[in-house]
Amino acid sequence: MKISVFIATSLDGFIARLNGDIDWLLNAGDTNDPEDYGYSKFIATVDCLVMGRNSFEKVQSFPEWPYAGMRVVVLSRTLNTIPDQAVGKAELSAGPVEMLAAKLRAEGLGRIYIDGGKTVQSFLRAGLVTDMTITRIPILIGSGLPLFGELPGDIALDHIETKAFPSGFVQSRYEVRK
Amino acid sequence: MKISVFIATSLDGFIARLNGDIDWLLNAGDTNDPEDYGYSKFIATVDCLVMGRNSFEKVQSFPEWPYAGMRVVVLSRTLNTIPDQAVGKAELSAGPVEMLAAKLRAEGLGRIYIDGGKTVQSFLRAGLVTDMTITRIPILIGSGLPLFGELPGDIALDHIETKAFPSGFVQSRYEVRK
Question: Which chain A residues are closer than 8 Å to B134 by Cβ?
Answer without folding.
Answer: 11
